[in-house]
Design a protein that fits this description.
Elements: H1 10-61, E1 65-69, E2 73-78, E3 88-89, E4 94-99, E5 106-108, E6 118-124, E7 130-135, E8 142-145
Length: 146
């Protein structure tokens, strides 16, 4: 009498696992690229929002506000060099690629203007994506340039 086979052999299970692994590699790679891009974009948006906060604070308090950048991150200071908030650190995959002379420090005057205009170029550490942040000196507005 023949015995009925219930279940899968070890070879069948290994083949299914191999196929599953082949399908997961491109998906994981795509996800990691998307994640780094999203981190870069959120960092740029954070810088723009904090610059707008510093501008509005300069108008409200009638004092100059500064944003000082370094390779590690940035900090917001009042006219008397008191820190307004904690130091903001850049995420692991984000770096400053280029910066105009007028961008560090950013100086927001009490009338809402910026002392000088300029740009900041953020890039992911792989160097595949860049985002340019522009400061307009007459309006004191900071925005992401396409």
């Amino acid at each position: 009498m023949r015995q009925v086979k219930n279940g899968f052999s070890i070879i069948e299970i290994l083949i299914v696992l191999f196929i599953f692994t082949l399908l997961m590699v491109p998906t994981t790679t795509y996800f990691l690229k998307y994640q780094r891009s999203a981190i870069l974009e959120s960092t740029a948006k954070e810088i723009v929002e904090i610059a707008n906060f510093a501008r509005e604070s300069a108008v409200n308090e009638r004092k100059a506000f500064y944003i000082v950048f370094d390779e590690d991150g940035f900090v917001v200071l009042r006219e008397n060099r008191d820190m307004v908030d904690k130091k903001h650190h850049f995420p692991e995959y984000v770096k400053i690629k280029d910066m105009s002379d007028g961008f560090s420090p950013l100086v927001f005057n009490p009338d809402g203007t910026a002392k000088t205009g300029g740009y900041l170029l953020l890039a992911d550490t792989a160097g595949k994506k860049e985002i340019r942040i522009v400061l307009h000196n007459l309006t004191g507005r900071c925005f992401i340039s396409e």
